[in-house]
C-alpha cells in the first residue's frame, strides 16, 4: 500500500459525533467525482473508506446509496445516488437549492464547531486528497473541480492556522503543502498522528544522511 493509502486507512478509524459525521460527508461530497442535483458519485480505491462511507451517510443523513460495489470487488469502488428525493434531502441538509444553485460553495454555517471543521477537512482529504511518501518528497494536496469550494476550503484552513498554497491545473483547483512541518500538523489535526510521525521520522533520517 502507498503512504497515502495508509494515511486514509488511519483516518477511517476516527470516530465522529453526529454533527461531525454530517461535516465529514460534506467534505467527501464536495471533493468527490460527481455531486450534482441529478447524480452523486463517489469513487475510491480505499477499502476502509468504502466500509466507512455507507455508515457515515446513514448516520449523518439517514440516506443509503442506490448503487454500491459488489462484495469482494477490486480496483476502484463506486458509490452512487440517483434518487431525486435522496439528493434533494442531501442538498437541503447543506443549505443548497439544487434547482437554483449555479456553483457549489462551502456553507460555513454547517461548520460552526471546531470539531466539524476538522471533520470536513478529513472528508475532503479522504475523497480528493493525497500525500506523497515522505522518504521521496514532501507534498500533500486537496483537489476539486469546484473553484468556490477550493477558495472556501483555503479560507477555512487559513482560519484554522494553516498556511497552504493554491494553484489550478487541468481544470482542477488544488490546495497544497510542501513543508514537512505543515504536513505533520495537518495530518495530526485531521486524525492521522501515526502518518504525521512517519513524516517526522523521514525528515530526521534525511537530515542524518545529509550530515
Could you explain how this protein is built, in words?
With 211 residues, this protein is α+β, with helices and mostly antiparallel strands. 49% of the residues lie in helices and 15% in strands. The chain is built from eight helices and seven strands, in the order H-H-E-E-H-E-H-H-E-E-H-E-E-H-H. The protein has helices at residues 3-11, 18-30, 47-61, 84-93, 114-128, 147-159, 180-190, 193-210, and strands at residues 34-35, 40-44, 77-81, 129-131, 140-144, 165-169, 172-177. The strands form two sheets. A four-stranded antiparallel β-sheet has the order 4-5-7-6. Helix 2 (18-30) packs parallel to helix 5 (114-128) and helix 7 (180-190) packs antiparallel against helix 8 (193-210). The longest helix has 18 residues, at 193-210. It starts with a helix and ends with a helix. The mean pLDDT is 92.
Q: Could you outline the blueprint of secondary structure elements for this entry?
A:
Elements (H helix, E strand, L loop, with lengths): L2 H9 L6 H13 L3 E2 L4 E5 L2 H15 L15 E5 L2 H10 L20 H15 E3 L8 E5 L2 H13 L5 E5 L2 E6 L2 H11 L2 H18 L1
Antiparallel strand pairs: 1-2, 2-3, 4-5, 5-7, 6-7
Helix pairs in contact: 2-3, 2-5, 7-8
Keywords:
211 residues, alpha+beta, four-stranded antiparallel sheet, three-stranded antiparallel sheet
